[in-house]
């Protein structure tokens, strides 16, 4: 007998017995012997080959029945052989792929290790530089405060203007240095929380005194509506940094002669602290974006105000460290309200 693969124009022999290859071409199949049986080999109803046997004697019905059964078995065997070969090829390809992927993973792991090491060096450098810059900046701001208070003698209007410019530049630079230092600590998971109970009014008052030159230059009305004796258990310096970031941000985006209000509201579980302004507002599509690192609203709206793009990112992280949350309510040309919700009870103090 003989098995042929079905091709468009040619029956190619897969297995032959008692026939030469020349006898198995398509045109010669019928003339191999006087009597022959042919049965297509089917898989899922589709013929993929033809089984042919030939003899000089006529085949009986029983032989024809056996032949059909053999054709069915042959179809299954051939396809299993093919599938086995295909599976072997696929397994080899998969194994080769795994080896290649493992090689890539090793390279990626080495690169990630280098990136992490470089990041640690960067954070350490930023932390050291920030600490070195803080001391002279605090001195500059402190002495400029004394000059403005005319502690060393009277100043004329021009001198007061120059000293005020020194104050404003120093405050801006100190804010940027603090942001760089804070983000490096946050990313290095090196922020330590020092909880204590204190008056929010006094904490806020200190921040407003620092920022006074900024909002006075724009003739802004800044209203501290927090009642004296409003106590909270939190990290004093971290809450001051939250106030500094939110209020300085409000100053940037509030037009001259505008208004900023800070007030609190208590519930059974939270103390809510709101910083509200009547500035340019923030589009709904940017509400999440502005809390991402280095994301800022279009620079054209800032009128040259300096920013690292880290303030709100740091604020959100500092609020999270207090187990609190920050909410933004704002629309374009309708001002903005940043609401910080701090828990009244601290479950645990953590580093």
From TrEMBL:
Pfam families: HATPase_c, HisKA. SMART domains: HATPase_c (SM00387), HisKA (SM00388). It is found in: Cell membrane. GO terms for cellular component: plasma membrane. It comes from the Bacteria. Its main location: membrane. Residues 128-346 form the Histidine kinase domain. Its EC number is 2.7.13.3. It catalyses: ATP + protein L-histidine = ADP + protein N-phospho-L-histidine. One of its GO terms (molecular function) is phosphorelay sensor kinase activity. Keywords: ATP-binding, Cell membrane, Kinase, Membrane, Nucleotide-binding, Phosphoprotein, Transferase, Two-component regulatory system. It is an enzyme of class 2 (transferase). InterPro entries: HATPase_C_sf, HATPase_dom, His_kinase_dom, HisK_dim/P_dom, HisK_dim/P_sf, Sensor_HK_Regulatory, Sig_transdc_His_kin-like_C. CDD domains: HisKA. This is histidine kinase. It comes from Candidatus Scatousia excrementipullorum.
């Amino acid at each position: 007998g003989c098995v042929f693969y079905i091709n468009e124009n040619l029956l190619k022999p897969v297995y032959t017995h008692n026939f030469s290859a020349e006898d198995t071409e398509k045109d010669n199949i019928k003339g191999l012997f006087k009597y022959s049986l042919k049965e297509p080999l089917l898989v899922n109803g589709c013929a993929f080959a033809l089984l042919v046997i030939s003899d000089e004697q006529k085949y009986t019905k029983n032989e024809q029945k056996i032949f059909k059964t053999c054709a069915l078995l042959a179809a299954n065997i051939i396809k299993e052989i093919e599938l086995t070969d295909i599976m072997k090829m696929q397994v080899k390809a998969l194994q080769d792929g795994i080896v290649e992927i493992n090689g890539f993973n090793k390279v990626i792991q080495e690169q990630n290790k280098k990136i992490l090491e470089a990041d640690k060096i960067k954070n350490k450098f930023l932390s050291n530089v920030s600490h070195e810059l803080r001391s002279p900046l605090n001195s500059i701001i402190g002495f400029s405060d004394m000059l403005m208070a005319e502690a060393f003698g009277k100043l004329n209007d021009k001198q007061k203007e120059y000293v005020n410019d020194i104050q404003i530049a120093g405050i801006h630079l100190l804010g940027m240095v603090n942001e760089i230092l804070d983000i490096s600590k946050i990313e290095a998971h090196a922020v330590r929380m020092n909880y204590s109970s204190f008056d929010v009014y006094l904490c806020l008052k200190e921040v407003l005194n620092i920022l006074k030159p900024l909002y006075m230059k724009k003739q802004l009305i800044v209203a501290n509506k927090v009642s004296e004796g409003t106590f909270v258990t939190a990290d004093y310096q971290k809450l001051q940094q939250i106030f500094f970031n939110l209020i300085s941000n409000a100053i940037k985006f509030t037009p001259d002669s505008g208004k900023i209000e800070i007030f609190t509201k208590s519930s059974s579980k939270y103390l809510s602290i709101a910083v509200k302004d009547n500035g340019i507002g923030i589009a709904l599509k940017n509400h999440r974006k502005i809390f991402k690192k280095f994301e800022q609203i279009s620079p054209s709206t800032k009128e040259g105000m300096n920013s690292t793009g880290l303030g709100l990112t740091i604020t959100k992280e500092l609020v999270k460290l207090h187990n609190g949350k920050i909410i933004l309510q704002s629309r374009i040309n309708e001002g903005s309200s940043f609401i910080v919700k701090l828990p009244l009870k601290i479950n645990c103090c953590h580093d």
